[in-house]
């Protein structure tokens, strides 16, 4: 990938800590025309980033939107979506 998992995680955490307003919020993940071999972080990396979000922020997270997910992402979310975004 063009952007490493660690760099993506640092970027997400920077945005959460510097630009997130008080109160509930949502995350929008745009996945338009991205192929795995291009710059797709993959579901495992997204799950790791989600797990590492501090509890104070995670409790305010209301929903995660996936916009234009690829076929692989759709299948994973359709079959394992609740587990993927649950606490365990």
TrEMBL record:
Pfam families referenced in this protein's UniProt entry, alphabetically: CRAL_TRIO_2 (PF13716)
Gene3D superfamilies linked to this entry: CRAL-TRIO lipid binding domain
Residues covered by the CRAL-TRIO domain: 4-87
InterPro entries: CRAL-TRIO_dom (IPR001251), CRAL-TRIO_dom_sf (IPR036865)
Chain segments annotated as transmembrane: none
Protein name: CRAL-TRIO domain-containing protein
Organism of origin: Nymphaea colorata
């Amino acid at each position: 990938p063009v952007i490493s998992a660690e760099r993506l995680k640092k970027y997400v955490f920077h945005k959460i800590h510097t630009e997130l307003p008080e109160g509930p919020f949502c995350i929008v993940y745009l996945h338009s025309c991205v192929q795995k071999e291009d710059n797709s972080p993959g579901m495992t990396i997204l799950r790791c980033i989600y797990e590492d979000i501090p509890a104070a922020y995670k409790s305010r997270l209301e929903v995660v939107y996936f916009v234009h997910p690829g076929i692989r992402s759709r299948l994973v979310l359709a079959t394992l979506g609740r587990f993927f975004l649950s606490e365990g």
